[in-house]
Structure formats: structure tokens, C-alpha cells
Amino acid sequence: MHFKIALEEGFALPSSLAQNSPIGFTPANASPEEHLSTNLLDIHGHRLRQMDENGVELMILSLNSAGCQGLSDQTAAETLSSSANDYLEDQVMKNPKRFAAFAALSMHDPKQAADELTRCMTKKKGFVGALLNDFQSSGPNGNTMLFYDHPRYDVFWQAAADLRAPVYIHPRTPTPLINEQMWKDRPWLNLSVLGFANRVNMHLLAIITAGVLDRFPDLKLVIGHMGEHIPFEMYRLDHKLDRARFPNMKMRKDKLIRDYFGEQVFITTSGHFSTPALVCSISEIGSKSCMFSIDYPFESIPNACVWYDEIQLNQHDLVDIGRNNCLRLFPKLMQEPHNLSIKSAWDCGIGGLRNGETTYGLFNKSFNHRLMKQ
Amino acid sequence: MHFKIALEEGFALPSSLAQNSPIGFTPANASPEEHLSTNLLDIHGHRLRQMDENGVELMILSLNSAGCQGLSDQTAAETLSSSANDYLEDQVMKNPKRFAAFAALSMHDPKQAADELTRCMTKKKGFVGALLNDFQSSGPNGNTMLFYDHPRYDVFWQAAADLRAPVYIHPRTPTPLINEQMWKDRPWLNLSVLGFANRVNMHLLAIITAGVLDRFPDLKLVIGHMGEHIPFEMYRLDHKLDRARFPNMKMRKDKLIRDYFGEQVFITTSGHFSTPALVCSISEIGSKSCMFSIDYPFESIPNACVWYDEIQLNQHDLVDIGRNNCLRLFPKLMQEPHNLSIKSAWDCGIGGLRNGETTYGLFNKSFNHRLMKQ
Amino acid sequence: MHFKIALEEGFALPSSLAQNSPIGFTPANASPEEHLSTNLLDIHGHRLRQMDENGVELMILSLNSAGCQGLSDQTAAETLSSSANDYLEDQVMKNPKRFAAFAALSMHDPKQAADELTRCMTKKKGFVGALLNDFQSSGPNGNTMLFYDHPRYDVFWQAAADLRAPVYIHPRTPTPLINEQMWKDRPWLNLSVLGFANRVNMHLLAIITAGVLDRFPDLKLVIGHMGEHIPFEMYRLDHKLDRARFPNMKMRKDKLIRDYFGEQVFITTSGHFSTPALVCSISEIGSKSCMFSIDYPFESIPNACVWYDEIQLNQHDLVDIGRNNCLRLFPKLMQEPHNLSIKSAWDCGIGGLRNGETTYGLFNKSFNHRLMKQ
Amino acid sequence: MHFKIALEEGFALPSSLAQNSPIGFTPANASPEEHLSTNLLDIHGHRLRQMDENGVELMILSLNSAGCQGLSDQTAAETLSSSANDYLEDQVMKNPKRFAAFAALSMHDPKQAADELTRCMTKKKGFVGALLNDFQSSGPNGNTMLFYDHPRYDVFWQAAADLRAPVYIHPRTPTPLINEQMWKDRPWLNLSVLGFANRVNMHLLAIITAGVLDRFPDLKLVIGHMGEHIPFEMYRLDHKLDRARFPNMKMRKDKLIRDYFGEQVFITTSGHFSTPALVCSISEIGSKSCMFSIDYPFESIPNACVWYDEIQLNQHDLVDIGRNNCLRLFPKLMQEPHNLSIKSAWDCGIGGLRNGETTYGLFNKSFNHRLMKQ
């Protein structure tokens, strides 16, 4: 599929890469182009080439996790936020037809976060929303965790809703304290294998059950990795969220978690290139709740795109999930300086027989690669 | 789900019931209300009560198959057409919030069919499209079959496109000649079990491959019974439709059959209440191509509705398939005298917790019937 | 997947190729290796190379359709049958680890068919069952069609059951008479696009509803092309097969069509490389009813195998559908001279990390091709 | 479906109910029969009646969570273990055709756990395996958590493997320390909504990645609640479990997590009555890895059974998941004193037309409830 959009795509500041060091992620035998550090720092080179080669029109970029959330010092976090946003604006504006930006925000002070988001969305160019890396580290030893379901964050959510700035809730590495007994000797489980999703799905549900989406009906949230387990669990979540036992749970009594998906909550495919999981998600939350993403450079652009381009699925859902749903959720992408537009499946090369390939079937060895490569 | 719309729903003229006799369809031990004749003639009594009880807001009614297509005498067919349409207008206008009409058309003379369709769509009230019962019987012995892919029918398709009148292609009982050797001793296979679909799917593909949809891009076609096998066959149809072998096939060389679904071709669930088949159809042609229908009185209204209301599927697809897709395809339903409107899943009672049922889960014996009955 | 078995794979007799001429199937720009005639005649050359390259351990070969069924002259049909079987035995015995045989049978005389099948299964080597190409042409002008649900064929079905010889019901080109009005001007629909399946599914259901499978509980039937529409239609078939209306239908009154699948009726994937259709079939008839096949040389071996090898499906179903179900249905394949054996998913290279590829995930560009190529 | 087997079904000891108090789980307006305490204590009354009414032939009973795992005092835990097992043997032997037992085990001392399991499996009657409620509470304040991936538990796993006793890993309420900051103010998320699964899936993967299943290839593990998110995550788990980064992870380098499912790891449907989730699980891990269960009395027996009995799925998978897979995993159920046997779909009332209902389809209002109730 041509003209895909991807929205969980990381970059690093040259100045902060050490702090967000991905050391250990890069295998010993990796080529220079495969080094995470190189790829996080690069935007207009190898990354763009791969976007060209794999039919990705635009990436929404975000500061490498844990970003500001990893800094327990408030001043340091706020400084990183504004400098990252300034840097990212510069980068995006070098090529706004191909890149857009998520604001990086310190979440120590909700009012300051709201102000910085306002600055990005109204004073700066190229910003279409924000990305938060799970909880905010805080406290003298960095082990205090701030969660955004607390009522004091309403000032932030109000701003995000008013600004029509969707907020992506992304995972982060845990502080040492979390589950220390459980996982200190099993680091391979604690990160992207399971721990990331197990923490983010709790945080997202905490925000929803606190009534945040009810108080701010214009607020939109996004989670990655095929929904951090939630689409598969949809029945059980709603079945078990016992309103009578927990009368002080603030979420509307007359709504199910399911009801928010496709209206205020959306998922992406980042890092979970599984057709059965996508099919299950489409069944449970609808294709309008789903968007393609990669998770570059923690995932391979060709891997993600080959998977997506060869899914045997109808053209309507493919073009919506691969592109148009993202434009509907982030309408700023259809304005200056990006100027993207809704496209048809045909525009995106899904379906049809072109380029003279009017004979197919019997001897066409590539036909089962149903989606045409132009 | 409340406010469902159903669009393959039969009625009979009192004067023509004998000609379309459903004798043999009614089991010996049927109650009076279960007699096909009774139910075909009834509109505002038992039918409407069942609609009320099962959440069907509106039915689009059509003359019982084979209707005009079964009359090989052109005058008789044209007379039946106009009298059926006049009768149906009267019936629909008695309760236009609950009923709408498909025009019955003689297809002997395409120009006459176009004129009658024009009369229904512009001079009469309550008509939103037309329904044709497969081929038109013709010839002195009734064994000549007229198919609508012939270029002389372009005048009819032009009118249907100009009038924005979607055309439903419905099956019919065969003339004696068809497959005589194959099926004369196996009548149980020749009708709704397989024969209906096997003939209608051929006729539909004949129309598409003749280029009719290309010449009239505003034309919309509908087929019932979960697409008469086609969604399941989508890959193989396109894979095997060899353009090089058949250079005089008129359909656009740069399109696949798949490309027309959701744009110009739509299916309904009439008489095929299978969740695996619906899930397969959603995968292959998209939920926007699918609409709920019953096939009353050849099917039970409660059967169809209990099935649909308990499908475990996201609320977006349920409300689109159950209602809104039909309104988008037949926008006249949103105007006088029907005045229906697009509704949300919430409006239709899908999702949510209402009527005080704020405790559920642990002991709620009906929770797994996920869709709330108000 | 390594060690796949394919069972709807054609060959042609040098002496009868003209009679079964595939002229017109080969595109003008085809390379010599792509000519249908060449590929039908070849067994041990290009075909075997492609099997090696694509992980096909064994093909069960069958005479190119319409084969004996296309000969309305009984003597000619019977002569072709025995000569084809003699020729095929010779070919298979040149490499019985890689090939097995379906008997070609004239169906003019059921007793003669039974005798020839007995000769193949007991006197000859390499035969594991029979393949029939739909109805038998008969009569002076060739337009009489013989169907095998007639009671006089019981002698044949008895033999097939006693010999434990599954019978594959394969499509064929129609005689001129069939549906002449419907399809004479639309040849592109009459063959593999829809006509093949529409006729074979009727013939199969005729055999089942005639009670053949009830009278011969050891009889097994196979149909190709993902079940010739039937898995998708399973609900509607059983729903509409009204026993009260047709009291002289001989099939057991206490069984559904569905009940025979996986016990006496099986399908293959030949020529229908659609994951949504396979997933629907697994839902409706179970993975134990499904077997991989290609339909070579009317389909490309790499096309079929690339599709199958990259389906995202659990290893148990993949190895059963790709191989082991076929061995269970044709236990002669596990005896002399073939000596194949049941293999695990691991044996077949499904799952696992081998050949030193112990680092994967982050930078492994081929990981989403989940099934390992050794 | 008749003759279902359910295997995550709780009971309480009269003496220990206070300790495992389910207070708060029962809504204020519950009828006496709906009180959790009543239902946990009852075995042969209301429970058995509901089993009769809903087609459940046998339940494997287990001590109400957290059971022995909740007792941080070793002596208390071991005493509870033996007394619970003695009590359960008595109960099961009152009606061994309808009940079987999972051993309750203290996991403070792996050797003692192995000995008690041996006692249950060899000296007592009615035991077919064991059920562990996640980690073992330990330490003076009860906040130490013991996980069973530690090498010192190998003596226990060895015994379970030697005894052919599958081990069910069940969730439990957390100790106060776990995630204290995250969840102390959000108790509605910490239990069955998400917290249970998020902890059990980590514990299960810890055991697998520690190489336990490799060292004990006869060991079988079971998890409930549709696999505690794992089937949906299968691709991502294997994709992200980076062997190069974690060279001291002991699991076999040449295996994927996926490879263990259906061989050594199995799931049940307890408390997650979602057809899309079951369909996804069948795709990802195969129907042979799945077993029906209820989670009584925390779930309603009719809820679970109505859901299961009306799933539109092929008869082979239904009877395997509903019954036969369990017998294959627990072959002791097919011996004295239970003497259950493998049954066909037909035996279980799936498919077929019986009891004189030889007319169906057209007017059969219950036909879409496809599975026949006898």
C-alpha cells in the first residue's frame, strides 16, 4: 500500500541520547545502519529512504522513551520537553510533507504540561498531538510514580481536548521499585515482551475509569502494540468491571469500556505484526479504531510494511487502517504545512490491475501478493 | 439492536398469489400465522407486530419472487408491474415510517422498465429502488431467458443510475429447461439450498463483466443471502478472470471484481444467519458492503434478529450493518415520507448499561447476551 | 513448510493431450516452461524441481480434466482409463517417494469402473484413490450427463468404500447443452471463475443427499477449490434442506450436511489461496477437514506455496492441513512404495529458531515471515 | 453441548472460608443461591443441579484462591494443603462420575509440595493434577513472593512430570506491596479486570523461559481466562524475546514460546466468554490447546454454557474444546473412579436432527440455535 502513515516512530536528541541510551538493544553483529543510536538520531537519511522504499508517506515523530517521563527532576524534565519540541519542530519543518510531531511533555506539573502542549499546538508548526511515556518518574529517589488519572491532571486533559490534540500513551522502562521481586531476575519479560503492555493497559484503564473521557468528550487517546492486550480482553474487562462493588469509580455508570473505542480511544499496530491479532481487534473494536504504525527504529520498516501490504483484507479497511483513520484523528495533518489528503484504496495501489498487467492468474507468480507494488 | 432495517422482505398481491404460489413451502403442522400465503399478504398485522417485538424499524418490501420475471407474456408482466407498484405504494403510505418499496419491473422491454422505474421513483411515494428476480422469462413456451448484461439493457441501467435507484438482484425458481438433466430429480437442491445462489452469482458477474458498472458509475447493485457465495470466492474470482484469454470482455481491464464491492455492489444477510460467513464477508468485502436483512416470510423474523442481536462484534460494524449502511445506500429513506435518520450504536441499544443495570458481571446471568434489550 | 503434500495435481497422456487440449490457457508471452502442454506432460523435470524448491514432498497425480468423463463413447472412455492408469503407474513407480496416483475411471458402466478401481488399488502400485471429473458425458451426441447419485452407481461406491479408496470430485468443462442460454456468450464465467464450482457443489450434494455416504460409511469424498463454496454456505445448506417438503430424499433424516465433513467429506485449497476463505473453512468444517493442494499446472507451485508458508496460523493446523490430514485420509501413502510418515510441525520447519538464528526480533528483517525457511 | 467438562471450578473449606473471604463479591440484592460463600461451600446441591441443567458432566474442583498460596506461614499453608486435599477427596468420592480434584499445595517447600502431590496422585482417589494460585506468599510480613521458575522448584516440577499431573496456574489477589503506587486507589483494576492476568501471564512466561518445560518434557501447564492475554500476544512475545540480549535465559534457544502450546501448555475459557477471543486463540494456538471452563462460582454456569452451546463453530472443535481435549490432558479421568470416555460430536448432541425434528429451516424459530438441545 502506498501512502501509509505511521505514528509511533521514535527519534532521539543528540544531547539526550546518553540519557535514553538504547545500549544493549543493538546486536553485536549489527551493521552501522542497524545501530539503534544511529537510527534514532537520523531522520532525513536512512529513515526517509526506507519510507520511500516501503510506501510510508508520513511519520509522526516522538522523543525516544522514556523521554521526559524518565526524569524525576522537574526542571530537567521541563527543560528536556521544550528543547525536544524546539528541535523536533526544526526537523519536521525541513520536510513537513513527510514528517509531523508529537509534543514531548513533562508531567510533573499538569498546568505546565498544558502550557507546553498549547505552545506546540498553537505557536509551533508541525505538531498534531502529544505522546506520553506511561507514568512520570518523580520524588527524590526517582521511585515515585505519577499517574494521569489523578484529578489534578484534569487541567492537562482539558487543554488536550480544547486543542484537539490526541494523546498517545506509550510504554516506558520501569523504575527499579516496580515489581522488584517479580522481575529483577527476569529482565527479558519486563520490557516489550509483556511488562510494557501490562503496565500501559492498566494506566489507560485507570484514566478511563477515572472518568477523564467523560469529563472531556473531545479528548482522544491512542495506544500502540495492537492495543496492549485490550482488544482481546474487551469482553472480560467489561464483564468484570463491577460497578456495584466500586461505587466511587467515576466513569459513567451507563457506559462500557468498549463504548469508548473508535470514539475516544484508538490503537496502532506498532510492533505487533500479527494478522490474527489484527483480525481479532477489528472484530472487537472495529477497523475505525485501528491505525497502522511501525515503532521504528525498534522495529524494521520493511518488516512492518511487508506484513501490512500482504494482508488479505478488504481494500476499505486496509486504506482506513493504513492511512485515512489517522487523518481523521489528526485533522491538522490535512492542513499546512503537511497538506495530506484522504485517499482512496485505488490511489494507494490497493486492488486494481495496472501497469499493463492485464494478464494475471494462471501464470502470474506474484498474484497472491495481492496488493500491487507500483 | 433497536432500529434495524431489513431490505429483502416479500409481500404478495392478493390477485397474483396463485400465480406465485408458495404451496409446498408451508409444513403441514404450521399454525395459521405460519402459512406463507397469510404472511405474504399481511403487512400491517402480524408482520408489524414481529417488527416491533424484534427491533426492526423499517422493511423495504418487494413483490414475491418470481414476480414479473416469471411472466413470459410481456403484457401480463407489464400489467403486473404497474398494478403491484400501485398496490405497494398504497400499503407503504399507510405507514411510511415503517415500510418502503422496491419497484417490481417487467424486463421484457428495457425502455418500458426504465419508464416504470422512473414513474415509481419520481411520481409515486415510498419507492427507493427496484428488485429484479434474476432473469426474465420470455418466448412462446416461456423457456427463453433474458439476462440484463445485454447491451440493450443499458437504457434501463442508465435510468437506475440517474434516478439513484439501487437494484436488488434476487433469485427465482428456474424455468424447466435449466439444467434439466442435472436437477429434475433433485428438486431439493435446485432452489434455496444451492441453485438460487449458483444462478444469481453468475447473473451478477455477467452484469459486472459486461462493463455495466463501468458505464454507469452511479449504479448500485445489491445481492442477498450473504452475497450468493461471492465474498468467500473473491480471491478466486479475480485470480481466474483471465483478461488475456477474453479480450472482448468489456469490464475495465484495470479493475478487479473486488474493487466494486462497497462502492457499487452490496450484500445482505437474508436467509444466511451464520456468524462465520458474516465474519468472512467483512474480511473480504468490508463491513461497509454488508447490510442486515431477513427474507421474511421465507425466514423467521425472530430467528434473524436473535442471531443478529447476539453476534459478538464491535458496535460500529453492528450499527452500520444493521441500519446505517442501508440509509447511506438509499438516502431517500432519510427524506419524506420515511424520515429515518443515521443513529449511533448507543441510540440502537448496542453497548452501554442502562435501566438501572449498573451491576453486572459476576452474577448477571444475561450478560453474555451482550447487546442490551431495553 | 517442508514436506507438504498436494493432491489435485494434473498430468496429461502424450497420446490424449490433443483431446484434452489446454490451448488458449497459455498466454502468448509465456515462456516454454509456462506452456500448459509442456507442464502437463512433464512429471520428473520442471515439476519435480519446483516441488524441491517449494517444500512439496509428494504429489498425487491425476489425468487432466475432463479425462474419461469427457468421452461420450464408452469404449473410448474405458480404453483411456486403463491406458492412463498403466501409464501413470509407470511414472509414479519411477519415483514413488515423490508421486502417487489417482485412478482415472470411465463412469459409463459402474461395474466396470469398480473393476478398474479394484485393479488399480490391488494389482497396481502407487494408487491411493480415484479422481472423477464431475459428470460422465454420454449419449450419441455427447450431451447426456450421467450423475453418480443414481442408485446404479452403488456398485461403484461399494467398491471404493471396500477398497478404502477416497474419491476426488473434480470439475470439468461443460457440454454445450448446459445453461446454453446463460453462458454461451460469457465463457469467462463458465469455467474456473464460477461455473466449475457451481456444478461440482451441486453434484457433491446430490451424492450426499441421495444417501450414498449413509449406505457406505467407509466411503470418503474430496472436493477442491476450498470446498467449491460449501464451507461458506454450511449454515444455509442445512437450514434450507427441508426434509418435510422432500420426504423421498434418501439422506438420513437425523443428519446435517455439516455432519459429514471431517468424517467422510474433505476439501483442498487448490486454486483458492485466500487466507480469509481458509479461516472461514476452518471455522465451519474444522481443520481436520482441510488439506493443502495446488492445482498444478493450472496454478503456480510457488504461488500456492508462498501463500501457504506465510499464513499466520498455529503450527498444529498448518502441519495437519499441509501434510498429516492427507496421510490420515490416504493411509496407503504410509506404506510401500511411498513410505511417508506423520511429521511434527518441528519436523516440517514450522516454528522454532534454527541454523544459528538465535537472535531475532529487533533487527531481523525476515521475522515476519514467521515460518522458517531452512 | 452435552457432556461438557469444566476445570477451573472453585470450592471452599468450611473451616477456611473466612480466610478466603469473598465478602464484597456478592451484590446486596443477591438471592441466597447467589451468595458466593454458599456456592463455594456447596458441591452436591445447587452446583450439581446447574451442571445437570446445562450439560456439564464433570467439574475438576480446586480450593478457592488464594488457598495455600495466601498463607505466608509455612506450617499453616501445609496444614491447609493436606486438610483441603483430604476434604476434597471425600467430596469427590461421593460422586466421582461428576467431580474430580486438583490438589491444593503449599509452595513454601518444593519437596513437601512434591510429596503432597505424590500422596494425592498415588494414595488418594479422584486427583488428576494440581492447581497453584500464582506466587506463594512468604516472609514475616507476608510480602515476600515465591515464584516457581526458581531452580529449587525443579524437584516439584519433576514430580508433577513423573506423576503425569498437569498443573493449573491460577491468579490470586496481590499482596499489598505489589504495585502499591499503581493500584492502591484503583482496586477495580487490580483483580480480575486486568491485574490477575497481567501477573499470571508473567509468572507463566517466567517458568517457560527458565527452561522448566525443556527440563521436564512430560510436564503440562494450564492457564485460564482464555490464556491470560497470551494467545493474542503470541507473535509479539516471540518477536521480542531477544535471545542475544539475554544469553543466560535458559529456555531452549531453538524454540519459540508458541511451540509449547498444544504440547505442554493449554488454556481454558474460564470467565472470558468471548467468541472473537476464542476464534483468535484457535488461530494462534490451535483448538487442541483450548478447553472449556467456567470459573464457578465467580461466573454463572448458565452464562458460560449458553455462550458455549451457541457458538457457531464446527463440531470437531466444539467437542474437543468442550470435552475431549480435557480427557486427553487428564487421562486419569478415563480411569477409575471417574470412567469418562471420549465422545463424538454426535454423542454430545452437536449437529444432527433428532427427536422427530425432521422438519426444520423455513419455520423453525429455534434453528439458529444450531446446537440441538435434547
TrEMBL record, chains A, B, C, D:
Keywords, ordered alphabetically: Decarboxylase, Lyase
UniProt-listed InterPro entries: ACMSD, Amidohydro-rel, Metal_Hydrolase
GO cellular component terms, semicolon-separated: cytosol
Listed GO biological process terms: secondary metabolic process
Annotated Amidohydrolase-related domain residues: 73-331
Family: Belongs to the metallo-dependent hydrolases superfamily.
UniProt-recorded name of the protein: Amidohydrolase-related domain-containing protein
Record organism: Exophiala viscosa
